[in-house]
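Appendix B. Chain record.
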Amino acid sequence: MKHLLSASDLTRDDALLILDTAAELATVTDRSVKKLPTLRGRTVVNLFFEDSTRTRISFEVAAKRLSADVINFAAKGSSVSKGESLKDTALTLEAMGADAVVIRHSASGAPHRLAHSDWIQGAVINAGDGTHEHPTQALLDAFTLRQHLRGGAGDLAGLRVAIVGDVLHSRVARSNVTLLRTLGAEVTLVAPPTLMPYGVDGWPCSTSFDIDDVLPSVDAVMMLRVQAERMQAAYFPSAHEYSRRYGIDAARMAVLPEHAIVLHPGPMNRGMEISADVADSPRAVMVEQVANGVSVRMSVLYLLLGGMPDEA
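Structure tokens predicted for this chain:
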């Protein structure tokens, strides 16, 4: 595997290799010197055409812990804001000797265009493209589920996960449905009819419009942010009505099985899709997701730039 563009690129064995490697690399954070020499001399470029805090910093920390050189390239204030094309930007990065490009772009498919062109020879990692996919987020979510509900080993066979909220605009939901299914989990998407994507019947999951029907029987619930910035129309009557019908609060938390956990890819709209008391609850694992994101992205960079075993 040369690139990571989509969760569908990963077989069960690929996904387990990434998760197992991430578990080993997570021990680096417990050391006094949090560095490995693995990617010394390699250059990783974070090419972000959309604003991001968690993902960009997570990739930067991951690359630096592996001793790679990191270049952060933000579209704002760069030649891109002056009209430079993706192709010309990529050719510039290639001339600078980029070994890997981590790209976030508002256009769905931009990472695929970059990977399947002759503009750049290094690895391309999709850090979120439009409303399409966000594969490393799905991997860190799977890692978090495995740590809490599977003892940190093996796949997620039989695990029941509900993904709730703005599925229509969520690249996180798309990647998670694919990856969690690959790992054996059963996924249910829960959303208002207006926020359920067209063609969802063909996805490897079930759907529901009623969160209260689903919560009593799941092992984990993943709340999605309402992406108001992508909405050009009224998808629900009001924020209060959305919260009442689809938000998770203490009352809904109480009907979850005792072992169940709550995830959120962030940033959270507290008081809308998730109440403050749930967000701050011990069963909410958002801070762990951020920490696990560094380990998972270290694993992806290590395997892509160090060579997957079948390419050794």
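Further analysis of this model is presented in Appendix C.
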